Amino acid sequence: MKGADMATQSEVSRMSTADIHALNKAHVIDTYGKRKLAFVRGKGMSLWDAEGREYLDFFAGIAVVGLGHCHPAVTEAIQQQAQRLVHVSNLYFIDAQVVLAKMLCEHSFADKWFFCNSGAEAIEAAIKLVRRYWWQKGTPKPTIVTAHDSFHGRTSGAMKATGQPKLHEGFEPLLEGFKYVDFDDVNALEEALTPDVGAVLLEPVQGEGGVRVPSASYFSEVRNLCDARDVLLVLDEVQTGLGRTGTLFAHTQYGIAPDIMALAKGLGNGVPIGAMGCTEEVASGFSVGSHASTFGGNPLSSAAAVATLRTLLEPGFIEGAAAVGDRFAAALNDLKSKHSSIVEVRARGLMIGVEMTKAVSPLVDAMLDAGIICGPAGAKVLRFLPPLIVTGGQVDRVVSALDDALSTF
User: Fold this and answer.
1) Where are the domains of the chain?
2) What is the pLDDT of residues 361-396, one digit of tens each?
3) Which is nearest to 235 in space by CA: 123, 343, 310, 135?
4) Residues near 320 by Cβ (< 8 Å), separated by ≥ 6?
């Protein structure tokens, strides 16, 4: 694009990938290492780049667009709300927000919800609530135990909660009061629960850590330990929640309930919204003025989330997605018997990781060349997070493309 300081919508629609890349290089801070692709349109399972090439999306914006791109119900809700009211702030009641809160309460353990803009902010709210809850009770217990190789977000508190020292480098001093144990190790957790510990914060399945699924009894033992030591259990369901793992929330598969839960990603099907839910008792830790979010749960994002949740709750929707996930995992395990470069297939619903013998970045590129979007989870795990509307036929196409890519990997 030449000769214009500001791009009109029509000019934006005519931009090439080269145009977009040049403007990005000139004006956007590079913290992502982006591939030279610019997607400009989406529908269902498909994305199109600026040159019109179609891609099959098996990453869903990192587990965000669970209903696929431009889902009709969500699009209609956004359009109608945008014509009526976009924002007023949380100094006033918001109709769509309270409807969303009611729906979430009806379908989860939680009695109360706080709304924000992202998963990291939901985790920040959880951290603050844990500390203020124990402070209000007169028994301060500021320490929170999290897991090695976890990922909880990029804000300062969430980053410190993340058990990956490489993500802390250059940002110290970070928030104090965290310690880390190995995931899926009950004995290590028990040793870590000293009297200063107020909460344990875990992902039901570790996502960025490589799609690590815990043993069947782990979370029931964690829940029992927390109850015995008077410690809150906080679950980060930012990636695992909203049908991703085969149930609305992953923790229900373990037969437990947390005291606090963080949501985001799939909640708004692409419209930014985060949420923290908790029991009535724990909610007492917050009072007027103790926490806030200007944009959190505003009319537009809440309307999108209501439409998303209603669709997810349609009879058979999540169960159907889980069945396709089982088919996908089985096909990937068949590939494992054929390709020695596959170490392990780890899956829960449509949250799937394939551990390889070496770095997967070239494999991600090879799949892109085949018109399929997937991504890494760490250096050696190929990750698939397709929208929940994915079909068996689309899974077969991806498995075939992966088979071809692995022949030269």
Assistant:
1) 35-64+317-406, 73-312
2) 999 999 999 999 999 999 999 999 999 999 999 999
3) 123
4) none
What is the CATH topology of the domain spanning 35-64+317-406?
Aspartate Aminotransferase, domain 1 (3.90.1150)
Q: In this structure, are residues 297 and 97 in contact, taking their beta carbons and an 8 Å threshold?
A: yes
The arithmetic mean of pLDDT across residues 182-186, rounded, is 98
- According to the model, what pLDDT value does residue 9 have? 58
Alpha-carbon span 70 to 384, nearest angstrom: 20
Helix, coil or strand: residue 228: helix
Alpha helices in 14-113 (DSSP H): 17-27, 60-63, 72-84, 95-106
Q: Which of 206, 235, 241 is nearest to 353 (CA)?
A: 206
In the chain, how long is the greatest CA-to-CA distance? 68
CA distances from 95 to 84, 263, 376 (A): 12, 20, 39
User: Per residue in 305-350, pLDDT tens?
Assistant: 999 999 999 999 999 999 999 999 999 999 999 999 999 999 999 9
**In the beta sheet, which residues pair with residue 141?**
none
What's the CA gap between 138 and 1, in Å, rounded? 62
Residue 316 token pair: 């058979």
CA dist 67 and 170 (Å) reads 38
Strands 375-376 and 381-384: antiparallel
3-state secondary structure 281-306: HHHCCCCCCCCCCCCCCCHHHHHHHH
Tokens encoding 382 = 């190929």
The pair of three-digit structure tokens given for residue 14, joined into one six-digit string = 């005519």
* Cβ neighbour number for residue 407 with a 10 Å cutoff: 10
Reported as a single tens digit per residue, the pLDDT across 82-123 is 999 999 999 999 999 999 999 999 999 999 999 999 999 999
Among the residue ranges 4-8, 175-179, 256-260, 317-321, the one predicted with the least confidence is 4-8
Q: Which CATH architecture has domain 73-312?
A: 3-Layer(aba) Sandwich (3.40)
User: In this structure, which amino acid lies at residue 349?
Assistant: G
* Predicted local distance difference test score (pLDDT) of residue 4: 47
| Least confidently predicted of 12-21, 182-191, 335-344, 395-404 | 12-21
